[in-house]
Amino acid sequence: MPTMADVARSAGVSVATVSHVLNETRPVLPHTRQAVLDAVEELGYTPNTLARSLVTSRTRSIGLAVSAISNPYFTEILQGVEAAALEHGYGLLIADPHDDPEHERKVVRLLHERRVDGMIVAPSADPGALLAYLGRHAVPTVLLDRVVDDRVDGAPRFDQVCAENTEPTARLVTHLAGLGHRRIGLVAGLSGLSTTDERITGYRQGLAAAGLPADDGLVVPGNSESAGAERATAALMSLAAPPTALVTANNAMTIGALRALRAHGLRVPDDIALCCFDDFAWADLFSPRLTAVAQPSREIGAEAVRVLLERLAAPGRSARTVRLPCAFVHRTSCGCPEADGEAAAAARAAAGARHAGYSDHSAHPEEGTLS
């Protein structure tokens, strides 16, 4: 197995210069750096990452704590994080906190003990212990998807990256209202999450913009999961005056809502219109095809990595929150007619591009990107 000394002899430089090139601990002339990299490639030299971390106090690794197993949305975010981390030469250590505050604190502590350079975390609905740990140990952290109001002396402690939630949800409601619906129900997410609060706010803003009264009886918690949404939808359909249209606040809850509607013998959109927050890979394959808000999930993951690397490069800078725009994907579950010809082809192309890593596309020519 070739050594660093072998690389130095091949490149005609000192071992120290090879170390500086590989560990990025000191500027090296471009032609010298290239000679070292060429020698590394030619000899097949593999750096000792453990030894490198002792020299640089960096492990070139990022800890990611998201509930990717139970939430397909986070699976796409994970793909964005992984691709961006690899692009910048970082490895990834992944833990699933299962949206449980106690388990969340444990897995973050374990990641920290592995000496990751920084963390990307989607906080639970009760993140107090998590934030206290991260703050106490000064762990460079980007909070993902769920915004928290955590401040010291009036200034936020952590960088955050998320999607817009309020305006896109309002857009779904006003679209349904524009189709003539006056009783629009919402299957809301887990209490305590900022995404839940913001989407409820957007729902109410959409009603107000359409001149419709708010009815708290039409907002039922689905707890961000399929079974909860199934119960919530059944409750809405059992009202004396049930909604004629429904908004579901994430992809898992859309599945639960569809199960409940089928159990009640209701057809979408003939008997009830449906729009959902979160697009997903098979939304375009349903009959009817699901009208949805598409979050730029992979871009959210990639942006979280970029923000974290900026934090590592400038630890003293002020924390910031980055919100990325969503896209309104107009299909047919809302009750609109099926697009044909070029419009249908554009819908399929937009759905394919989005799940290949692009975002902010509309599947209907007259519907645009939300910001």
How does the SSE layout of this entry go?
Blueprint: H1 4-11, H2 15-23, H3 30-43, H4 49-56, E1 61-65, H5 72-87, E2 91-95, H6 101-113, E3 118-121, H7 128-136, E4 141-144, E5 151-152, E6 155-156, E7 159-163, H8 166-178, E8 184-188, H9 194-209, E9 219-221, H10 226-237, E10 245-248, H11 251-263, E11 273-277, E12 291-294, H12 297-313, E13 321-324, E14 327-329, H13 342-355
Parallel strand pairs: 1-2, 1-3, 3-4, 4-7, 7-13, 8-9, 8-10, 10-11, 11-12
Antiparallel strand pairs: 5-6, 12-14
Helix pairs in contact: 1-2, 1-3, 5-12, 6-7, 8-9, 10-11
Task: List the defining traits of the structure above.
disordered C terminus; 13 helices; 371 residues; single chain; 6-stranded mixed beta sheet; elongated; alpha/beta; 6-stranded parallel beta sheet
General description of the model:
The chain is an alpha/beta fold. Helices cover 44% and strands 15% of the residues. It has helices spanning 4-11, 15-23, 30-43, 49-56, 72-87, 101-113, 128-136, 166-178, 194-209, 226-237, 251-263, 297-313, 342-355, and strands spanning 61-65, 91-95, 118-121, 141-144, 151-152, 155-156, 159-163, 184-188, 219-221, 245-248, 273-277, 291-294, 321-324, 327-329. The strands form 3 sheets. It has a 6-stranded parallel beta sheet, sandwiched between helices. A 6-stranded mixed beta sheet has the order 9-8-10-11-12-14, with helices on both faces. Helix 1 (4-11) packs across helix 2 (15-23) and helix 1 packs across helix 3.
